[in-house]
Amino acid sequence: MKKLLNDPRSVVQEAVAGFGAAHPGVVTVSQDPLFITRAEPPRTGKVALVSGGGSGHEPLHGGFVGYGMLDAAVPGPVFTSPTPDPIAAATQAVDQGAGVLHIVKNYTGDVLNFETAADLADAEGIAVRSVLVSDDVAVRDSLYTAGRRGVAGTVFVEKIAGAAAERGDDLDGVAAIATRVAERTRSMGVALRPCIVPHSGEPSFELDDDEVEIGIGIHGEPGRERIGIEPADRIIDRLLGPILDDLPFESGDRVVALVNGMGGTPSMELYIAYRRVADVLAGRGIEVARTLVGDYVTSLEMQGLSLSLLQLDDELLELWDAPVQTVALRWGR
Amino acid sequence: MKKLLNDPRSVVQEAVAGFGAAHPGVVTVSQDPLFITRAEPPRTGKVALVSGGGSGHEPLHGGFVGYGMLDAAVPGPVFTSPTPDPIAAATQAVDQGAGVLHIVKNYTGDVLNFETAADLADAEGIAVRSVLVSDDVAVRDSLYTAGRRGVAGTVFVEKIAGAAAERGDDLDGVAAIATRVAERTRSMGVALRPCIVPHSGEPSFELDDDEVEIGIGIHGEPGRERIGIEPADRIIDRLLGPILDDLPFESGDRVVALVNGMGGTPSMELYIAYRRVADVLAGRGIEVARTLVGDYVTSLEMQGLSLSLLQLDDELLELWDAPVQTVALRWGR
Which of chain B's residues have a Cβ under 8 Å away from the Cβ of A21? Predict the structure, then answer.
């Protein structure tokens, strides 16, 4: 296995330590139990937001800790849910007396462990609400998941719920906004090449030299189909069609569009993809109000990308535009 | 060749079109001749900054166009210098009457074509000065280059010279600041896996399954040596040693540290690398005042990273911290 690491068993601890050392003005790292919080605590009385999940999807979630977004992120082992204890510890660490919202990607391990952590926090007198993100339209009931998987649309939920909490919404209000974003978000991805998971040293899946997998999951779980490589525009159409049909998105809608790199995809290919996304949406009468193009929810060095769309309303757009100061998203302040 | 593209001959045009469509508030794209300028022109009388070079290194240079940094970027074909005409056209487009600084990475093609473009602009009555960036300590006189190569330290030059221009320095002043940054910057890289250049469909170089190349160039040019894969900390030491010895950086120095991903490197590995950089510099009594970790100067999907250090003084730190609003760097405003 050819990777820049010291010991496959300590990649997450070392990477999180490096993350804390690199961004001391934004985040603070607790090594045991392992979680990441804001360097500057929020104002007293703010609803706190906690997310987490298996590592290997960086910048999700640690890169989204900071003003206007998460209060804490809990990284598990690579592609493996964190246990309840660090989630409960992070929840307790960031509670400001107004309760804590857990933002959970829909994978069986994450769901169970966040539930147990919520029970532990409840026993300490902390009010916890949860929102599940299940934005992936590719498949229903797959490896690791009952129902749809939570993928890159999680960024929309964390950003907008974070802005609502910063605005002063109470726990029920922040949970309602987060749920609204999750309900209006749809995603789908394609992979060209797998990643290699450090502790196994093995590729996350196998693909032939001329094959791509449509509807891939962020851990390399099977998607809808394997097809021969096609021109980028046709592949984008294969992702965008099911996304648009599912909600559905309709003429007159305004959206946030995310072209998300999976870690090993050249920037150039993401922008070639966005060019097609913009053309197709314009042709359907859908206005792209805001755009993100880059690596936001990765799968180590996997090659491929996902598309996510969020159907906006005026309030969601205002919250999207609200200031955010994290390592991976930063604007307006 | 398994890549997300439509036609290998139009990858740059399509990617730049997508870039313009994705970030209309920050950049404007001219397709023929091909260059990228700010969406909002700077104030009259500001010295303008133009950079450019072969494509495939994104976000360099288009991602650094915007307030506080570049006025224009000129993308050539993949790994190939742009011709003088678009450079001259971009120079003319952004001149505000105070002259234009060309920031040029030291490759023979770039040097010649920027020189010719400067002559063309001069014939139109535009004052042009140039600064060469040659921060790579790995090799002297390599493929494509007489003298040292210009690599990721270019980001330091573009950011700080951009802030000096925004502050109101005249052309000589901005050129002097840019030169000072270039003289105080040192870099070196390592590659684990090559990229595939779209128009050839071939890997940029070959490496065995257990080999890495120390001192790699950003086009895959040969470095200092090929060695078997080692723990990340030892590889980082092999890069950091020559960087520190070259200037030299000494106890009491303050630096900006950049751990730059080459496009296909997982975020996790970049932070494992930064952890070692921070430890080594602390041990040498060198203070890391500011840090960047991420993909800033890539080589398509090449796997590997480079380290860059800039030796700061008070003025350079102040200019580094000055507001910047580009697609790839954004803070303070």
Answer: 274-275, 278, 291
Q: Which residues of B touch A190 (CB under 8 A)?
A: 4
Strand runs (DSSP E) across A13-91, as ranges?
Answer: 27-31, 34-38, 48-55, 72-78
How does DSSP classify residue B96?
-
Q: Please say whether the beta carbons of B112 and B142 come within 8 A.
A: no
**Contact call for B6 and A231, based on CB within 8 A:** yes
Q: Does residue B57 carry a catalytic annotation?
A: yes
Cβ neighbours of residue A279 closer than 8 Å, sequence gap 6 or more: none
Q: Report residue A122 as tokens.
A: 């409840």
Instruction: Report d(CA B90, CA B105) in Å as an integer.
Output: 17
Q: Tokens representing B280?
A: 């080594």
Q: Quote the minimal CA–CA distance from A122 to chain B in Å.
A: 33
ipTM of the modeled complex: 0.97
| CA distance linking residue B301 with residue B217, whole number of Å | 14
Q: How far is B102 from chain A (nearest CA, A)?
A: 24
Contact call for B293 and A18, based on CB within 8 A: yes
Token output for B98: 């105070």
Domain ranges, ordered by start, for chain B: 8-183, 185-324+327-331
The third-level CATH classification (topology) of the domain covering A8-183 is Rossmann fold (3.40.50)
pLDDT tens by residue, chain A, 333 residues: 899 999 999 999 999 999 999 999 999 999 999 999 999 998 889 999 999 999 999 999 999 999 999 999 999 999 999 999 999 999 999 999 999 999 999 999 999 999 999 999 999 999 999 999 999 999 887 777 889 999 999 999 999 999 999 999 999 999 999 999 999 999 999 999 999 999 899 898 999 999 999 999 999 888 999 999 999 999 999 999 999 999 999 999 999 999 999 999 999 999 999 999 999 999 999 999 999 999 999 999 999 999 999 999 999 999 999 999 999 999 986
A8-183 and A185-324+327-331 share one CATH topology?
no
Single out the catalytic residue among A23, A57, A61, A102: A57
Helices and strands counted in chain A (H then E): 8, 14
A19: its two tokens: 């993350």
Distance CA A309, CA B40 (A): 27
Cα nearest neighbour of B212 on chain A: A2
Pairing label, strands A48-55, A100-105: parallel
How many CA atoms does the CB half-sphere of B7 hold within 13 Å?
Answer: 4
A61 is catalytic: no
CA–CA–CA angle B31, A233, A221 (5° rounding): 130
Contact B272 A12 (CB under 8 A): no
Query: Is the pTM higher than 0.90?
Result: yes
Chain A residues near residue B232 by CB distance under 8 angstroms: 4-6
The hierarchical CATH code for the domain A185-324+327-331 is 3.30.1180.20
